[in-house]
Amino acid sequence: MSISIENKVALVTGANRGIGKAIVKSFIKHGAKKVYLAVRDTGSTKDLEEEFGSKVETLEADLSNKTSIQELANKSKDVEIVVNNAGVGKPHTTIADGVEEDLQKHFDVNVFGLLRVANAFAETLIKNKGALVQMNSVASIKNFPHLSTYSASKAASYSLTQGIRADLGEKGVSVLSVHPGPIDTEMAAEAGFDDPASTETVSEGIVKALKASDFHLFPDEMAKQVEQAYKEFSENVVLADFSE
């Protein structure tokens, strides 16, 4: 189903910086009526509040806490587009001290956080015939060794995104899986990626992909290279209906 941003109420987790902040700005640029800024630190969105006034509202949200996410959903019953952007991503190899603890941290936010958001907002999105946007990564398709635990968590979140699409899609909810490559964020800098794409590449891509009723978005140059290699598998396996 085609989703236009114009006159919609949206919610963006991790809205205070990086890609999340760019999504907020793009949504308002394209006519969103209101954007909820869902963040752990409610004092971190003052600049967005000053810039956009009543068009934004800050709400506390911690993806690692089920109660927090349920309270978030209870406070935003009018939301039509939920963007689950918040996540964690720290460099860590597979063969290393502390790898199990690191993987647990990544899964708690990037995987279980997605489940918490999807389940908490399901009823509202079904009622409002809305959309759920999940920030995955090219690392959900290929493991990058220096980001091994992050890659594993994103592979799991991508798999769950497919499941969410199956569950909610038949009830009128659009689901978009976003797979950026290196983007100009703190995470990309820490991981040592050179020449990252702008955050606006992702945010503007989301607006277009929702309008086009796409399931996958590979927004930047590196991601599009992955998309070309992945396209046949995606069409014939991921998007295929094996129930027929």
UniProtKB/TrEMBL annotation:
Q: Where are the transmembrane segments?
A: none
Which protein are we looking at?
Answer: Short-chain dehydrogenase
Q: From what superkingdom does this record's organism come?
A: Bacteria
What Pfam families does the annotation carry?
adh_short
Keywords on record: NADP, Oxidoreductase
Question: PROSITE patterns per the record?
Answer: ADH_SHORT
Alphabetical list of NCBIfam families matching this protein: PRK08264.1-6 (NF006120)
Regarding protein family, the annotation reads: Belongs to the short-chain dehydrogenases/reductases (SDR) family.
